[in-house]
């Protein structure tokens, strides 16, 4: 095997519409494999040693529209304790931009309803305070007063959002809940819990929030990670310009 054969393979992958990210993973795996073969004297040299990884690029996070958020957060007329819980979770997620792992494991004591702040221990055990709005406060209060005791049925739990067993919800279960809620709301696009975090950041920046404040609320160590959300709004503006400008 030589470098020309490797490049031919990568070109074949590109023609098959395989993404650069997937190709990058393939090359990385082959680099490691041939490095091992070279160390074991099975091959004379590693042909991938001088092959650069394809640039994976960075896909823009997908956000919901304001109308989709409204439909997602509007509960059905008949409320069960679990639906009340789920609705409160969705409101808090959109209001704070929490990571799903942070939301489902949120301690009861971390939610300060009087000050409308939630205290989160994020990545790298870094603590941050995130404000939330009056609507989220009302939903959480309603859940705590009416639904949480019925779900617990006399059991005790230190988690804010709990299952019938008094434990925190799994990521998979919350993903199932948000998918079911979106379908009931008539949202046809594929939706994930992380899209509410993306929507939180995108909508804040679109309405004039400064980048540094959004970075602090999201818990990003590097502001460059937050800057990707400015590109989403730029893409939206491009679409508006193309659609409505007479020479767009």
Q: Could you please describe the fold and organization of this structure?
A:
This is Tyrosine recombinase XerC. Residues 59-242 form the Tyr recombinase domain. Pfam families: Phage_int_SAM_1 (PF02899), Phage_integrase (PF00589). Forms a cyclic heterotetrameric complex composed of two molecules of XerC and two molecules of XerD. InterPro entries: CB, Integrase_catalytic, Integrase_SAM-like_N, Tyrosine_recombinase_XerC/XerD, Tyrosine_recombinase_XerCD. Helices cover 56% and strands 5% of the residues. Helix 4 (81-96) crosses helix 8 and helix 9 (211-218) packs across helix 10 (223-244). The protein folds into two domains: 1-57, no CATH class; 66-240, hpI Integrase, Chain A (Orthogonal Bundle), CATH 1.10.443. The longest helix has 22 residues, at 223-244. It contains ten helices and three strands. It is elongated, with a radius of gyration of 23 Å. The chain has a three-stranded antiparallel sheet with strand order 1-2-3, with no helix packed on it. The chain has helices at residues 3-15, 20-39, 66-73, 81-96, 100-104, 134-152, 171-184, 193-206, 211-218, 223-244, and strands at 111-112, 117-121, 127-131. It is mainly alpha-helical and 248 residues long. The model has no long low-confidence stretch (mean pLDDT 85). It starts with a helix and ends with a helix.
